């Protein structure tokens, strides 16, 4: 079984639209939140490098939706490593609704991230920091 990083979330009214279901763009927002919590939990020194010019730039993201979510649904977002190159990361996401009967797959997504460094007024590709590389390898 593939190892995954889990981010747990309870859907609130602020996540829903007038119809009452979760607004589709929130799934993408939750990918970012999951990625941030992963950094906090497994690569905290990388977060400190943001002050020194490091940037993790999302270059592409996607989400395929299979079912709707509603307020107070319990969501488990599972993230794993898709691909890791010199300066790019591909992350895979699965969205699961936790119910009394078990879990239901709600959506799947992907996010590609480029590791960059700010140099004066421009951004240049940079290697993925070693601490982040090692942390991600555990979720391959």
TrEMBL record:
Coiled-coil intervals: none
InterPro entries the record matches: HotDog_dom_sf (IPR029069), YbgC/YbaW (IPR006684)
Keywords (A to Z) from UniProt: Hydrolase
Keyword field contains Hydrolase: yes
Keyword Hydrolase: yes
Highest taxon of source: Bacteria
Gene Ontology terms for molecular function: hydrolase activity
Protein name as annotated: 4-hydroxybenzoyl-CoA thioesterase
Protein source organism: Reticulibacter mediterranei
